[in-house]
């Protein structure tokens, strides 16, 4: 048998095991929240410290709009220009926050229910570089890379959400980059998309693009398929003025928003894990107050994403145990308040798909997910401490995330699953379970089977070329990029969008005839 025929046979077997099942082993939104690294006393202490900081220290650099809204609601400006948030106002923001909403896909089958501790895996990162599929070297990322990332993710069952993963470095104008970022993401996948917007004046064009795709302003507001991510603070405890203007305009345009604080422990937040966590809670809660004062019914995602530095060098270190436990703690605080929560995890420091990559990514993503983060960003594709993305890694991470989701699902020790009657039947019969109907019925509903992870015997693996998982993932990624050009945006609508907006991806690049 040739290597090609062996590989074809393996692909056929994979297709049989990964087809949609009525009772799949994993699913988007599997329920988590059992991991609680903070004791109840520590949760109370962190909550109290965060609320105290907001009430006594507050944030500086508040925009006139923030000042007007917060002071009208009971806040206070100090003589040294800091805006204070009374505890009652913060409690109002938490208690009235939207819960149990959907992040919609352009295809309703891709909708994500954001409630309780339901977990969804996402990309993310806004990396400036790409680990090239062909040269295996880093280079600057382009708009094409962003579109390619979206369409690979469109085919990955265990990556549920597409957050803009690379920056289109080939577009210098911010307005054009923001618009084309939105188009490339929305054209590349029908899953829910999240992007950031660099300047307030760019919000309107992106809103208009979304309205046109949805079929109207009201249609988009009813089913918004794009979230605007906003780093509304510049740690420590300062508002990012331009970002806050973006936030306000995005809310008014009907976008869900993600409220991000991303201090770096030892640099822009305290070096201690607990101190960094407290500051992140306070900064993110300040954003939630403002968001709800702009529109009380806003779909706002609580997204404290504190980062860790290697204090020997000052450079970011995303792959250590400190980052993993910090994200688990942040997710637990989100669950404590029952807020829709997003965490950053998986930002490995590894430069390629290797043992460091797998170890660091699985550690951080597993902990954030088990703690109940609703959206785990940077969980796929991201590497090199947020500086690079690998398209092949989306494929291998799809397996990794599937296995993590299976661990979140848990053991499910019900009487039916304990199967004491089956144990008795087998012990009195043939003495093994391989021929049992119970085994056959549960082999797909209870077990996750990887697509590129290799479980064959060493001899079969060697006869098939002894390829590393990264090589197999690259082959899958190349196959997707050659064949998968999503068409959920109808051709006539795509032409209309191009006539109206400055779309830089050509129709040929998106697989459409000229």
Features:
single chain; 514 residues; alpha/beta; TIM Barrel; five-stranded parallel beta sheet; four-stranded mixed beta sheet; 19 helices; 20 strands; 45% helix; disordered N terminus
Instruction: Note the gap between the termini.
Output: 43 Å
CATH superfamily of the domain at 95-409: Trimethylamine methyltransferase-like
CATH class of the domain at 95-409: Alpha Beta
Q: What is the radius of gyration computed over CA atoms, rounded to a whole number of angstroms?
A: 24 Å
Helix content: 40-55%
Mean pLDDT: 94
Put simply, the count of helices is: 19
Structural class by SSE content: alpha/beta
Report on this model:
Strands 10-11-12-13-15 form a 5-stranded parallel β-sheet. A 4-stranded mixed β-sheet has the order 1-7-18-17. The two termini are 43 Å apart. Mean pLDDT is 94; it is low at 1-19. It has helices spanning 3-18, 40-56, 64-72, 87-95, 143-153, 174-188, 203-214, 217-222, 241-253, 273-294, 321-336, 355-370, 391-409, 415-418, 420-427, 437-442, 458-463, 469-483, 491-500; strands at residues 30-31, 59-60, 76-77, 82-84, 101-103, 112-114, 118-121, 129-131, 138-140, 162-163, 193-196, 226-230, 257-261, 264-265, 300-304, 307-308, 342-344, 375-377, 382-383, 388-390. Among the domains are: 95-409, Trimethylamine methyltransferase-like (TIM Barrel, Alpha-Beta Barrel); 411-442, no CATH class. It has 19 helices and 20 strands. It is α/β, with parallel strands linked by helices and 514 residues long.
